[in-house]
What does this fold into?
Amino acid sequence: MSRPAAPADDWWTAILWVAAADGLATFAELAPAAGPPPDPPLTRLGPALAGGLSGLILEDAGRLQIRLALVVPPEDPQRPWRCPAVVRAAFRWEPARAATLRPNALASEVLTAFRRAIEGLGRR
It folds into this structure.
């Protein structure tokens, strides 16, 4: 994970990735053994990551304040799993919960949730 940043608009941002022996893993390598599902990896990763951070992410107007985007989009949009497993993540934290965590503890929570969400990609 990159060093988190918290710009003035209260979004906590970081780059998250999965390393492989020869560089970066691809989402295809993290997919189920039967092969990648038809939906894009962020469609599965987003809810899993939000669930792992349940109670920490701010809810505004009924929507969790989490944003995920690929850093490197797939060359072929028809094969969305064939791109590096590198994600730009942004969160707005529930103020009362975030105030009780030191910055490194908050980063640890994000890393743990990301690891579990990535591991879950291969189980579906």
Remarks:
- The first strand starts at residue 12 and ends at 17.
- Helices lie at 27-30, 41-52, 95-98, 103-121.
- The mean pLDDT is 92.
- Residues 6 and 12 are 4 Å apart (CA to CA).
